[in-house]
User: Which sequence fits this backbone?
């Protein structure tokens, strides 16, 4: 997905070129049979650099499937991908593995996504970074087998679209990966996420697909980013989604002449941006637009419905510009998710269902004291069931308890958060999850601790004369910070929302 365009020049100019060791070439190793995705799936993007739990957020929102953004190399020239290009987040069970296991156990799944705006503008998208097709294919295989997933997404935009060598390497590697999957009896899909005009793909995006055909790489889904048009035109974002997808349908018909009309629509995905997109208020995707797109998507039988990103699905900044963590419009939390979630097929609607909420939803407490909230459950469908309650996310120095820990839907429990003086000052997201035979739902409580003597600032302190590269973390003024790209001399907390330092929260 795209970040603010004003960042591009800064990002591109700041990249250092350092070669890193690659992975072993693609082998014939064993492959488990991952559960295929539903024929029609809602899979919003999850911003994996925020430090939030994808499993907890999936439960809170009701999104059973997530597209995990992004995988990229740490530096240009490397053949080893990491989550967000962060050297501390390798492709391993230790990086999101437990969350992904939890999501899969609940009947959902994740779609790991390679690329994204930052990678595509800094040469760290793996096929742009690495010139060895076998190592690129091996990296893809490692993601598939580590997380037991059945689809990989390639988010290719801006500079990566124009890198013809990278485009060719990527599709050659995809073909090798698909041959490996077929030899091991494994279902595996590939999606391409591409920018679009309101009438279909531009020539650069279409060239990516033509190259895939030339290389024998199967593209299962073409996912259009139906936002950030930047054409200074008036927009009805729902109508533009429909015309963009129709244009793609017609383009695909020429690339794949043997496919039926239904099969062509079944290759299409659309990704919206809830609320105000990066261009500004002229490109605003409303809740009414979401309902229109949902009805259209069901009628056409498209494959994938998504949006960028799950963390934006709230009304925390009404009237404001595009942001990573709010939509910029008046809405309730998870409004867009609740409109799109029923799109996922192959699931059963429970006869009985319930909701979970916390009152109050936040609180501030001095270290050594306690905070309480009432966790309420309610019957939303059918009959009341027994709901087991669990709590997660409490930091060191904070003990969380629920009394009672099991209620009949419609009943309440008391959440108690007891702190010690050793708790670290800061703000924490506590998740309470209710589970019944019909499924799981969750709610969040935000706890702010003041006056604590503890410290979680284990990262090295920021130093003005030190050079930092993308993914490196520091501590400064009681917060942990992560560098998004190369920087030196820029003080954390002063570079703004689109600046180099990402605030990871209090430590």
Assistant:
């Amino acid at each position: 997905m795209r970040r603010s365009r004003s960042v591009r020049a800064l990002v591109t100019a700041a990249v250092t070129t350092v070669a890193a060791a690659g992975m072993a070439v693609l082998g014939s190793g064993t492959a488990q049979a991952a559960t295929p995705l539903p024929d029609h799936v809602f899979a919003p993007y999850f911003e994996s650099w925020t430090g939030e739990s994808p499993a907890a957020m999936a439960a809170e929102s009701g999104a059973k499937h997530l597209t995990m953004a992004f995988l990229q190399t740490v530096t240009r020239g490397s053949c080893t991908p990491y989550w967000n290009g962060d050297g501390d987040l390798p492709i391993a069970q230790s990086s999101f593995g437990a969350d992904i296991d939890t999501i899969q156990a609940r009947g959902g799944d994740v779609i790991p996504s390679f690329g994204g705006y930052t990678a595509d503008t800094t040469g760290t998208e793996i096929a742009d970074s690495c010139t060895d097709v076998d190592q690129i294919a091996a990296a893809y295989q490692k993601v598939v087998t580590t997380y037991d997933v059945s689809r990989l997404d390639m988010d290719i935009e801006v500079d990566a679209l124009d890198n013809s060598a990278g485009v060719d390497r990527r599709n050659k590697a995809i073909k090798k990966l698909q041959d490996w999957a077929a030899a091991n009896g494994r279902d595996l899909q590939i999606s391409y996420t591409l920018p679009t005009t309101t009438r279909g793909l531009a020539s650069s995006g279409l060239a990516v697909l033509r190259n895939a055909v030339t290389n024998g790489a199967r593209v299962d889904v073409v996912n259009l980013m139906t936002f950030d048009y930047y054409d200074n035109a008036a927009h009805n974002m729902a109508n533009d989604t429909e015309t963009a997808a129709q244009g793609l349908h017609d383009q695909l018909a020429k690339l794949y002449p043997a496919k039926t009309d239904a099969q062509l629509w079944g290759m299409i995905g659309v990704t919206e941006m809830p609320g105000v997109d990066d261009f500004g208020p002229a490109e605003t995707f409303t809740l009414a637009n979401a309902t229109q797109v949902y009805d259209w998507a069901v009628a056409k039988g498209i494959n994938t419905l998504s949006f960028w990103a799950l963390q934006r699905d709230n009304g925390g900044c009404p009237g404001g510009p595009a942001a990573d963590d709010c939509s910029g419009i008046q809405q309730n939390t998870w409004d867009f998710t609740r409109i799109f979630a029923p799109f996922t097929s192959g699931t059963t609607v429970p006869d009985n269902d319930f909701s979970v909420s916390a009152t109050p939803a936040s609180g501030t407490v001095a270290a050594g004291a306690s905070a309480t909230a009432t966790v309420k459950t309610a019957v939303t469908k059918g009959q009341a069931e027994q709901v087991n309650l669990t709590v997660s996310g409490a930091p060191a120095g904070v003990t969380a308890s629920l009394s009672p820990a099991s209620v009949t839907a419609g009943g309440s429990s008391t959440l108690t958060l007891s702190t010690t003086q050793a708790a670290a000052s800061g703000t924490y997201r506590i998740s309470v999850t209710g589970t019944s035979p019909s499924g799981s739902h969750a709610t969040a409580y935000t706890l702010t601790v003041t006056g604590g003597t503890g410290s979680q600032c284990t990262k090295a302190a920021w130093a003005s004369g030190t050079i930092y590269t993308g993914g490196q973390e520091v501590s400064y003024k009681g917060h942990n910070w992560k560098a998004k790209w190369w920087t030196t001399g820029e003080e954390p907390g002063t570079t703004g929302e689109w600046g180099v330092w990402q605030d990871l929260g209090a430590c």
In short: The domain at 9-343 is CATH 3.20.20.80 (TIM Barrel). The CA atoms of residues 272 and 307 lie 4 Å apart.
